[in-house]
Design goal:
Layout lengths: L5 E6 L14 H16 L3 E6 L2 H11 L4 H25 L4 E5 L8 E2 L2 H9 L3 E5 L9 H11 L4 E6 L5 E2 L11 E2 L1 E3 H7 L6 H9 L4 E5 L5 H6 L6 E4 L1
Parallel strand pairs: 1-2, 1-6, 2-5, 3-4, 3-5, 6-10, 9-11
Antiparallel strand pairs: 7-8, 10-11
Helix pairs in contact: 1-3, 2-3, 5-7, 6-7
Length: 237
């Protein structure tokens, strides 16, 4: 029994690093692909927006002092690399996958076309949205919110690396940080909590789109959320 017919999974680039300082851990990618494939096999339509922090962190020194727009385009290419790795891992699990890119790279990905993406989901394909929104100055969080609304997703599953959900501070540096099981979009915005960036949170709030913030390290969490179990933090209107 599943609680959602269609979800959008936001995977941070850091969630793909495992224990590495930057780059992609093949074992981590494999484990994530297994989770997604199990949920997909249960009949849930899945769209994915990866981040690029795991790769971009390795070139951030090069980007220091660079024009912001140029640096953002480099980040979009990092996201595309992650999308291709994730596609390969999911196909090895037997899933039918399409990558759609907001930047035109026709040799490796389809261009983003909303109606085509919807059709892929309806046909039971996993769709990975690469290169963010295709515009500088917008984060992959904003891309996730935008694509979720465009795809009529019922919820965003926001995967965090080693953090159980939303806290009053950063639990890795603040010993007094308190876990928050549920909060509204607007409260999160007003309190400056690190759920998503302000643009993404506002878009989710305006469209009454719930966000489940959870720890990607637990390999059962996606399945638990999709089955209707409360995991991590629920951000809702």
């Amino acid at each position: 029994m599943v609680a959602f017919k269609r979800i959008l999974l936001k995977l941070s680039g850091e969630a793909l690093m495992g224990s590495l300082e930057y780059g992609t851990d093949p074992g981590r990618i494999h484990a994530i692909a297994q989770q997604i494939a199990r949920v997909h096999a249960a009949g849930v339509e899945i769209a994915i927006v990866p981040g690029g922090g795991n790769i971009y962190r390795g070139v951030s020194g090069v980007a220091a002092g660079m024009d912001r727009a140029t640096g953002d385009y480099m980040g979009m290419l990092a996201i595309l690399i992650n999308a291709m790795q994730l596609q390969d891992a999911l196909e090895k699990q037997g899933a039918d996958v399409r990558v759609q890119s907001a930047l035109h790279v026709r040799e490796v990905a389809e261009p983003y076309i909303r109606r085509r993406a919807l059709r892929h989901l309806e046909k039971g394909r996993v769709v990975i949205f690469a290169a963010g929104t295709g515009n500088p100055f917008f984060t992959s969080d904003t891309a996730a919110a935008l694509r979720a609304v465009e795809m009529h997703a019922e919820a965003i599953l926001m995967a965090k690396n080693g953090v159980e959900g939303v806290y009053t501070g950063d639990p890795r540096t603040d010993p007094d940080a308190v876990f928050i099981p549920q909060i509204t979009h607007m409260d999160a915005l007003q309190r400056g909590l690190r759920v998503m960036d302000a643009t993404a949170l506002t878009l989710c709030s305006e469209n009454k789109l719930p966000i489940h913030v959870f720890n990607m390290d637990d390999e059962s969490n996606i399945e638990r959320i999709v089955s209707g179990e409360r995991v991590g933090t629920l951000v809702t209107t």
